[in-house]
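ok trying this again, last paste got cut off
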Amino acid sequence: MPQSNRININDAPKWFKAFFVFAPVIGCLLIATHLDNDFFFICKTGEYIVNNGLPTTDFLSMHSTMHIIVQQWLSTVIYYYIFKYLGTVGVLGFVFMCYALFCVLMHRLTKLITGNLFVASMVSLLADLFAAVMFERSRPQAMTMLLILLVLYLLESFVQKGKIIYLCLLPLVSLALINLHAAMWAMLFVFAAPYGVAAIPFKFKNIKQEPCCSFVKLAVCGIICFAVGFINPYGFEAMKYITSSFGYDEINGLIVEMKAPAITDAWGFALFAVLGVFACFAIFYKKRAFTTRFVLLFAGTAFMSLLTTKSIAYFIVGGIPAFSYMLKDAVVTLKIDNNQKRDKKDKKKLIILVAAFILMLGVLGAVLALQPADSANIAESSNTAEASDEDDYAALREMVKILDKENKDDVVLYASFNHGQFFEYYDYHPYIDGRAELFLKDNNKEFDYLEEYGSLRSGSLYYKDFVDKYHFTYIATDSTDVFLQASLLHDNDYEIVYKSGKNILFKLKDNK
């Protein structure tokens, strides 16, 4: 490769340095400025752990005997303390800080892969912007995406520089992942797998692969990282948490981000548009030598993203940097002074690359326009969680005021999957909440409440059997409770005590 590609950042003009230096600022303007709906149970969980220690049975829902593990325990404690002392501003500031670090690391990774400042800046900026719009939220994933990106940076640094210190840092990443977000701990090994394959010497007929690095060193590091995974409060149960939390029809049918992306929704449109542009580049623009680790990394994360919308985050973290490798020679020279000139071929390449960049920005704009308003948002006032979506959460606040007139111990409450955590924040214990996987029998060792809830929503479970089973004194329904709400409107045992649009609070008449 011509030496002119590996442009030192210090040789670039000031405007070009500013191009990527301010990328985090641009992205921060696109990050949602409200707290995520999951923050209700995240904050409440952190509060419980700080005051009572780590739980093994549920303390939020009405199912107080079901077994649980808090696979995000350290994240909840971190968010709880930030929210307690700094409020919403502090939580959002923490998310912005994680995102800024993500931007810096993404740029360093793509620069390391390509050795091309121009390409690295453009590719990393696109990845940053898509991450900001789609996945940077006040959830543990703000930290998880940063840590997985760090895994790739350390592995790529080891391959290119050969220094063992980079592998020595991976066990620390393993320790952080298992405690911050155990369900994503296995992703460390998924993202490391392409490097392991690329480190194996291979020869078949005329096909020969030279190892990219020492397989033995990678294997030893992997064993240490696995062993470090046991350093968590729940042991091996946390390490295998991903196996009992994904792939269930009950979860996939309930949570949008667990469904396969469709081109008709904003996230699916973005994914297929990006894959389409990448495919055009691969076919018409550039032919490069086979590079195992980047091909596997790109193909693997692309495949994952086609399975669930949630996995598009992994494509942003791993697939986009991997693709940048084939663009490393895309711009032969970066014009620094008037003495450097591009030939016609170089100018054509530059035009195509810039056109693709503008097209990607157009896709991002379409995503912003198409994505639905997030109805699961909260805001905070005086360190008390309040809702920012007045259509739904203003009604829920009124429901809480009504419930507060009762003795909390006497309230047996039904609330939906979307709103259960809101009531939990105010110390009520509803039937279900947004922690979907905990309501699976494989996890709670008690009963498949999620399947029961799905049957209720679909109408295949008779509402009266459900209501009589739990003896609800209050039932808070919303637009997702179509069959339950319609049935209760004709049930003489319950009366409406509050109604706002599709949000209706029913009370058992005998409960006076």
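PB: full thing came through this time. Strands lie at 35-36, 202-204, 207-209, 377-381, 384-387, 413-414, 474-477, 494-500, 503-508.
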